[in-house]
Amino acid sequence: MDKVKFFAIFIPVLIGLAFLFRILIPIAIAAVAICIITMVLFGKKNNIEFLRKFQSREPTKFVCIECGYYHNENACPKCGSKIKKYYSKT
């Protein structure tokens, strides 16, 4: 391939990439800025409270169907049964 054909293909590709980066980089910067502004507006206290909603305060508890024992293990430590159901106080 001679130099003229190479540059005839290469230069439009470079120009296209330049326009693409010109569009994508400001979008990425804007997304980061929006995240920062949102965190500042809601405040640090609200962010921590929001994240705490997704954290478990108590370990998951199960009730053994066979003997009714509350535990956190795969099998019941009292009778050895693996048949269990999730226990919630609410």
Number of helices: 1
Termini Cα gap = 74 Å
Order of neighbouring strands in the sheet with most strands: 2-1-3
Number of strands: 3
Compute the gyration radius: what is it? 29 Å
Structural class: mainly alpha
Strand content: 5-15%
Q: Helices and strands, in N-to-C order?
A: HEEE
Give the total of domains. Answer: 2
Helix content: 55-70%
- Tell the overall outline: elongated
Give a verbal description of the structure.
A hairpin with a 5-residue loop joins strand 1 and strand 2. The N and C termini lie far apart (74 Å). 56% of the residues lie in helices and 11% in strands. The chain is mostly helical. The mean pLDDT is 77. The protein has a 3-stranded antiparallel beta sheet, with no helix packed on it. It is elongated, with a radius of gyration of 29 Å. It folds into 2 domains: 55 residues; 35 residues.
